[in-house]
Amino acid sequence: MTVETQSGQRTEPVHKLVAASISQDLGFLLAKLHAAGSVLNNRALSEFDLKERSYSVLILAASGLEPTQREMADFLSLDPSQIVNLVDELEKRGLVVRAPGKQDRRAKTVTATAEGGKLRKQAAEAARQAESAVLAGLEADEAAQLKALLRKALWGHADA
């Protein structure tokens, strides 16, 4: 896999270091793949004035599941204050709205506006292309299997 650094430089893998035991460490491999994907995702999403985190909030807001800010924070493994800031940013742009929760009026649900739903659809294609670039070394069935295994590891079943 060719890796892009934060400065945009493309580097070939350092084959000599692949022999190090860390290349067998799951945490290292996941972090390395995530880092490479983040660079490409953020570049692709910049066209829509989004980054991975704001895009993730927009996707959840457009899911029809009416997530609360707390649920988003838990699901995305972010501090609640980070979610508040991300929702504030998207709300100022007219992409999402907050509403009192149905079960707990103190909890705020976040829902995409029509404009937010439209932007999410456009950005989703750019994100899919970035994902394809990150997983270019895998066949389509291998990429699907990788995602299924990760869902299974996280939530106990592959079809989550």
Any overview of this molecule?
Helix 3 (52-61) packs across helix 5 (80-92) and helix 4 (69-76) packs across helix 5 (80-92). The protein is globular, with a radius of gyration of 18 Å. The protein is mainly α and 160 residues long. Helix content is 57%, strand content 9%.
Give the structure's gist in a few sentences.
The chain is 57% helix and 9% strand. The chain is mainly α and 160 residues long. Strands 1-2 form a two-stranded antiparallel sheet. Strands 3-4 form a two-stranded antiparallel ribbon.
Helix content: 55-70%
Q: Reading side by side through the largest sheet, how are the strands ordered?
A: 1-2
- Helix count, DSSP H or I runs of 4 or more residues: 7
Low-confidence stretches: none
Biggest sheet descriptor: 2 strands, antiparallel
Query: What is the global morphology?
Result: globular
Q: Strand portion, in percent?
A: 5-15%
Average pLDDT over all residues? 90
- N-to-C CA distance: 28 Å
Gyration radius, rounded: 18 Å
Structural class: mainly alpha
Sketch the topology as an H/E string, one letter per element: EEHHHHHEEHH
Q: How many strands appear in the DSSP assignment?
A: 4
